[in-house]
Amino acid sequence: MVIGAGALGLATAEALLRQGGGVTVLERGPVGRESSWAGGGILSPLCPWDYPDEVNRLALRGMGLFGDYAEALHRATGIDPEYQRSGMLVMPPFDMLAALRWCATHGMKAERNDDGLLLPDIAQARNPRLMQSLRARVEQLGGRIVEQCAVEQIVEKAGKVTHLATTQGDFSADAYVVTAGAWSKVLLGAHALHADIKPIRGQMLLFKFDAPPLPHIVLQGDIYLIPRRDGHLLLGSTREDVGFDKSTTEEAHAMLLQRGAVLLPALREMPVIKHWAGLRPGSPGNIPTIGRHPHLPNLFINSGHYRYGVTMTPASVEVLMNTINGTPQPFDVSPYLWR
Description:
The chain contains eight helices and 19 strands. The chain is of the alpha/beta class. The strands form four sheets. Strands 5-6-4-14-15-16-13-17 form an eight-stranded mixed beta sheet. Strands 8-2-1-12-19-18 form a six-stranded mixed beta sheet, with helices on one face. A hairpin with a 6-residue loop joins strand 18 and strand 19. The longest helix is centred in the N-terminal third of the chain and has 25 residues.
């Protein structure tokens, strides 16, 4: 039983199904319409040299696996997640020497130019297409997805989870994986322990050009522009600690437009065709919780990835599956353990 049908939930279900398991995915709303859908799909920490090794370890592993992962989904389902190595231009202010040192140490290509630092191998995926492909793959493999099914209580007895009480009745399974994003801690209640996950709102704007107006992603501080193949352009994003409030604000709209137009002046003449907000699963240091509950051996978690859930998806699922199967991990996973 997988609780939550975002990128991590569907990818976890897909991996379990490929192993021959029977899997039901419960989703409190429609599939894939929370942070996995709302995000921009940049497959990298925005400035990886500013993040701790615990974040980059998972992110770099995910980045390395993502191309083959997206290709396999496209081949199996016919739905293209639109993975592409578009590159990312990081514009000042940032510590150029620290960035160059980090890139050299971690084998990431970096090209210094008049505008800043170009990272030519940074890729992107188109989140809504990725979610459509993941859903199709789970259903293709025989997985069951139950939408509009909110988990109200995780019921345990004699040291293990016995069933889930939901708005659509009780559901039981041999094992349970919580992939509920920003809702994970609330859903777990007393079982959350130190999985400190909370919603952080991010707002974005969408534009449409006849052709891509930029050759690559452009980043300055927390503001980024993401060009899609078909001329759509995403402008994001805010970080707002406002609880479970997904409303959009005029203040964010104005700020994003002002900052974005500095990077791409043509935006001043373009209409905003969409403005939305999503709730990231915020966690201290952007470090997720992945693994088995210390007191309930049939309860697992794969959540709290904050801004980089899509980037980390292939690696996080790999770590979780290795935990479930008792197989060796690709690196030290102790920072992500459920405590």
